[in-house]
Write a structure and sequence with these properties.
CATH topology of the largest domain: Immunoglobulin-like
Number of domains: 3
Number of helices: 7
CATH superfamily of the largest domain: Cupredoxins -  blue copper proteins
Radius of gyration: 22 Å
Distance between the termini: 36 Å
Helix content: under 10%
Structural class: mainly beta
CATH architecture of the largest domain: Sandwich
Length: 546
Amino acid sequence: MTSRRAFLHLGGVAGWTLLSSPLRTAWAQSQDHTSHAGHVPTPAVTQVAFPSPVIRTADAFTNPLFVPGNSGLLGVMAVQAPLRFTVGGAKQPVVPGKSLANLLVYGSEQGGVQRANPTLLTKKGQVVEVALNNGMPEPTIIHWHGLLVDGKTDGGPQLSIPQGGEYRYRFEVRNRAGMYWYHPHPHATAARQAYSGLAGLFFVDDDEEQAVREKLGLELGDNDLPLVIQDKRIDADGQLVYRPTDEEWKGGYLGNEVLVNLTVAPLLKATPRWYRLRMLNGSTARIFNLAFFHGERDLPFDVIGTDSGLLRRAQTAKRAFLSPGERLDVLVNLAQVPAGQFVMLKSLAFDPMHQEGGHAGHGGSGAAINWPDGAEIPLLKIAVDGAAVSTPAPLPNVLSRFDDIKVSNAKIRPWKLGWNGKDWLLNGKTFQMSEVAATVRRNDVEIWELQNESQGMPHPMHIHGFVFQVVSRQDSPKQQGELAVDRTGRSASDLGWKDTVLVWPGETVRVAIDFNHPHAGAQTFMFHCHNLEHEDKGMMVNFRVA
């Protein structure tokens, strides 16, 4: 992968600026629009103005989809030497015709090229070194989401560094090929830091992945594209606003815009062939119910991978849920779409199942929300033009080879996801920095049974340091049960190797985890809800492998 040409720069980033000074100026501007996570916000002295709700039709999707280039925001960087990340501020166009939005980014310069939140290209087996420097006047740390690393590299909140501090990472890439990501994980402020821009993509390559790309004629940046889908609350001046109310700390913070690769109403110009879309839900709370439409007809797609790489074989689907932190790797055959026509990627309407006795506040801070939780949302217009050069190659019968985790002697460890009227809980506990909620024996295989109470809400549950296989879903709501592809109740997006799984109210999801690892000594990791408002308010525990 690193020998291929870098991602094409299809979308414009004119006006992108990395602020050369320490974060003080950008931080001050950011604080005009955000409140500290973990604290109830006080009323603003001046009212923040939000634009009136606009529900866009397909004709309004005219902004070129931003795709990472060699430099700038999400600039592609083949990891070949030690890297230095400095947390700083950047200005980036988000809403056309509005002022540049103030973002927080991981700035990095290599070979005279500036990048912000660089997209890292790596290969299985190589060693990665990163020095993180904190320019923010509050603690931060990087978590390598989905990567198989030791506890001191994983980036839990205990490792957070203060302003001016430095943290050095050095780890071998042990993962299968896939699209992973990195983001901040300090306690009580992770949601706001990630929401304000701190996140990047981490690609791993291996022989199986290369074989699939070559077979299907896929090239990164051309017809193999990352799609970071996230909602943001944006004011009338084009600035991001993060001010959760009490109800939004409870239910999740929703935006009045849904962006793809930080693009409002994005348009991708495509040709009639295979397109691979590697989708990440980068929202703090919103769940998407993904589907493709050609006119009024749904367009089936092929799921070829999930969080941690390729499936054994492709699974045809018509829709799939994607919760915060999850990734979904799909193929869409655009050769079946006549030239001059288009396909819409949508999030279809669904029941958000806020059954905890109160719904997430949709209007906080005076914002008018275009799309309430569970509403239908148009995400991306894909315009197809030109003639097919050749018939797309058929999908391989086998994409990847791996074994199921042997669970015949596995210990079952229950995790109850609950609400006590004040806090979201894991086995009746909220996060305490020094408390270890569970100890697992090294090399053991366990089944973690995630039981969500019926008077709750959906929780995307994420494990650090390991990946798992979903074993079964029980008592699933109809909208989830309809997606089952086998007798265990699993959907296509549950297959393969995962690090995050969505658990609906009243549902029980079993996952198998092999706690074998090569690291010396006892290791401490996190297990938490990836609704980042829930995480910041304490729906998180430490577990130890010893």
